[in-house]
Amino acid sequence: MTLFEKIRDSEEPADIVYKDEYVTAFDDKYPDAPVHVLIIPNKTIKSLDAVTDEDELHMGKILLAASKIAKIKNICETGYRLITNCNKDAGQEIDYLHFHLLGGVRLGRMIGLPKESQKYFKQLKENKNNTFNN
């Protein structure tokens, strides 16, 4: 059982921000912004890759919950970001679909690549430019 399942089932403590039949949301224990809420479906889904047509209602409820939580946290006017990481390369650390709602401060760039990935990406762009120039 994952940490998120335990939080969803009230077996692990968390600061619950919002909960309904489809969604549970709680403050991130290690926030990356003044507002950092994790939103999970109450149905166990491993990752975004595992979503099926049967999960349509849960996915829609997550988006509606994000909007409600932004209002609860008073960031709907200033803005917020909703992010999900899918699998290892994207940074998914817990095998349970979850979304990060971030706000409360002006957020930086959409993504920040680690140095090794920046180097690799630079090489890819250079190779692509060389291909077009030949």
Describe this structure in words.
It contains three helices and five strands, in the order αβββαββα. It is an alpha+beta fold. It has one domain: HIT-like (HIT family, subunit A), CATH 3.30.428. Strands 1-2-3-5-4 form a five-stranded antiparallel sheet, with helices on one face. It is globular, with a radius of gyration of 18 Å. The N and C termini lie far apart (54 Å). The mean pLDDT is 90.
What is the topology?
Layout: H1 3-8, E1 16-19, E2 23-27, E3 35-41, H2 56-72, E4 80-83, E5 99-103, H3 115-133
Antiparallel strand pairs: 1-2, 2-3, 3-5, 4-5
What Rg do the Cα atoms give?
Answer: 18 Å
Secondary-structure element order, as H and E?
Answer: HEEEHEEH
Largest sheet: 5 strands, antiparallel
Structural class: alpha+beta
Spatial sequence of strands, sheet with the most strands:
1-2-3-5-4
Q: Please indicate the count of domains.
A: 1
- In CATH, the topology is named HIT family, subunit A
Proportion of strand residues: 15-25%
Spans where pLDDT lies below 50 across 5 or more residues: none
- Mean pLDDT score: 90
What's the shape?
globular
Number of strands: 5
In short:
The chain has 134 residues and is of the alpha+beta class. The protein has three helices and five strands. It has helices at 3-8, 56-72, 115-133; strands at 16-19, 23-27, 35-41, 80-83, 99-103.
